[in-house]
Automatic annotation (TrEMBL):
A Pfam family that the UniProt record links to this protein: ThuA
Domain ThuA-like span(s) in chain numbering: 106-299
UniProt cross-references to PANTHER family, sorted A to Z: GALACTOSE-BINDING DOMAIN-LIKE SUPERFAMILY PROTEIN, SECRETED GLYCOSYL HYDROLASE
InterPro entries (UniProt xref): Class_I_gatase-like (IPR029062), ThuA-like (IPR029010)
Entry's Gene Ontology molecular function annotations: hydrolase activity
Superkingdom of source: Bacteria
Coiled coil (residue ranges): none
Keywords, sorted A to Z: Hydrolase
Organism the protein comes from: Actinoallomurus iriomotensis
Protein name: Glycosyl hydrolase
Amino acid sequence: MRRPFSHLATVAATAAGTAAVLVATALLGGLPAAGGAAGSKDRGAQELGDPDYGVCRGTDPRCYHDWGDFDPAKGYRILVYSRTAGPRHANLGPALGPGLDPPLASANVAQNALVAMGKANGFGVDWTEDVAQLATPQQLFRYNAVVFLSTTRDALDDAAQTSLRQYIRGGGGFVGIHNAFGTEYNWPWYEGLLGGANYYDHGPAQPGTVQTLDHKDVSTAALPGRWDFSDEWYNLVPFPSRVRFLATVDESSLPNGVRGSQGHPGHGDFHPVAWCQYYDGGRAWLTTLGHDAKAYTDDGGAFAGAPSFQRLVLGGIESAMGMKPFCR
């Protein structure tokens, strides 16, 4: 059954365009600001303004559409998309061949890790770097969530952009990991899907301490309050807004500081690394973490924080799919 508030926003958009979407969104009650340790403040609005993407967005589930007919009886399945049209992270290994589920080499560490994660936790995983596999909404509606795994630059053509947007509008799930934030820079709708945020720069890869903001969300429920990890610690412009913040990095724990290669000074006492939101009818779970290949594979503790990172990602995927509660 369609949710009446979401349907109202869609009807308004059809009748009167983007301006009516803004009115309908306002009628939804002024979507709440970020949750978690940030309290009722919307840190995005506080720091860099609150970008408006002309869609229903925020932490209110009334922004969600259930039109995609995702039937739990059919099981759960994700599509992992790792196409790169620019720099390629080493954790992805060599570029994949065309089609769906091309052969994976041992060097395709991150893709293999998500396939193994699905097998261990009861959901199916397909993978591709072939943009033709995202060409129609019907192709994407076979999946409960689409995972952008360190994609880069213009990873989608026009057909795939349209397909992804319609998939999200129909209630699809989206998970963005690491350099998903370095993708589709010039597409405002995608920036909104990321939480109204985008990659600007980062400092040197280095160890630091992640702070779990609360333990209510599925993705953070099993995590310690503070855990060591190594990453590139992305600096963001715009800063995330209207999202539920899930985890931050303690900038004071970074031995080499957080100033980025392009001069960004970091985010001070609140530097988010994971968050979630409802967006334009769908669910979006995001993390800037995931640079090092060992973060995806080490479960013995040699790479500090790897088990916590893996639990974080697993919970994000499960909740974005609708397999477990989302963005609580």
